[in-house]
Amino acid sequence: xxxxxxxxxxxxxxxxxIASANPVSEDSNLSVTPLDEILQIEEGxxxxxxxxxxxGQYLLVTCSKWVPPSNSVVKHYLLDxxxxxxxxxxxxxxxxxxxxxxQAKWIPSGDKVYFEVSRIDETNSGYCYIICNPDGTNLRxxxxxxxDLSYILKNLGDIGYQKNLxxxxxxxxxxxxxxxxxxxxxxxYVVDGSGTNAHELPxxxxxxxxxxxxxxxxxxxxxxxxxxxxxNDDLLQDLRPENKNERYCAxxxxxxxxxxxxxxxxxxxxxxxxxxxxxxxxxxxGNISYNENLWANESWQPNGSLLLVNQNRNLYIVEGDxxxxxxxxxxxASEPQWFPDxxxxxxxxxxxxxYSIDVDGTNLSFITSFGPTYSYLWKYFGERQHxxxxxxxxxxxxxxxxxxxxxxxxxNNDIYKFDIAAPLFIINSNGSNLTQVTPAVKGRYDTCINWxxxxxxxxxxxxxxxxxxxxxxxxxLVKLDSENFSSIWESLPVxxxxxxxxxxxxxxxxxxxxxxxxxxxxxxSREIIKQSPSFMLLQIFTCIMGIWLLHKSKEL
Length: 556
Fold this sequence. Notes:
By secondary structure, the chain is mainly β. The protein is built from six helices and 43 strands.
């Protein structure tokens, strides 16, 4: 009898140990779905970019497949994340004819999409912008009468080179640079929001046209000034450097259009000095003595006019009508960025620790550590790609290097290994609720590509190390609150998706693992496994039952 009771206890404990060995994420509603599973794309295609619509309902996905020796096949998809429908945008061409099509993007108003097309060869080189409806209809190469994408790609040499596209605030006008075939100078052109009715403005070598408001445009002249003109080419204002030996070569407007930042240099030097002034040119102040990369050390406050400056690893705020510079933080700061509300700053201290600080210099707070590998490996992914704050400012996504065998941060002596794992994590901006989003896979680096406007969804891009280089991996869609998440996606014509219709025959895609939920929480030095409270209670109950059964056996 006692032997049988002990066997029962053993199996009960074994069962509870198996259950409790599966750790439970603190955010049980988190879901991760690979985009290739949703889109059911053919083998060899990878998602190279994603972009959310301004209202956050739609997601544009660009997929491509390399076709040796020098071509690629490109597809653009539209996903409706509300209705869980998707479809491939039809431009009237397919296969290798799509080679040269680049990333699909939304225009600011969100009612149209645009993308660039590019080709370089001996007889047909060019670069231009295509604008169309989200379903691919009403397509046009801006500034031209060309409406057939196949014809445009085959005749790019007759179009020339367009670049630096910029919309006015209500998306009713577009300004861009255009170097037409045979022209040595670059013209500035204005067209309406559909890309028609082109009107030429003054030419310059690097004009960089930008709308100041709905009808006024700022350009860089060959004389080294910044000119404010209207779209009828009338000069309204000319901003000139105070130093006669310098020339303005670039500018940046504050989001509220009250300040302007200039990059200035002399003809005999590549060193760039950064200046700031009020929009009328008053109170011009110098702030940075040298910029190795343009605007790498400065960033505007969202929707405001404060300027954040990183000078010699110290953080400063330039503010007020006098444009005075105030020390915000002294230390070893890098990669500073604003919180979306413009009230706090996020930055990296000493290469691997993430902090926040209020704009007035108070409330310096430690958030998390990236681990000792940060300074060497992350440079391969570009500045700020390894961490990103969501639009609400509540969550921060970041990747951190892990040993996939032990589940721990890589030690200092392993920092020169490229085939480590670097999964993605999210953490509350106050430093709580650290959660692993993707599994630790050796040789894979997961980064947050972009957040939805409401901050509840984001896309992940994976980069895979394969000696001796890097390859793109599968991208994924992450939903933070997946309580109402559906694992079934329907394939529909994009025209029906945009109109909100669901008619005709559709393909339903069942995602086999809709909730690829994270099941681990980590700290800088070790993995923390949290058991579900229900399993803990079951273990306690099992122990109590075992003691009771042993007691009863003694009575017998």
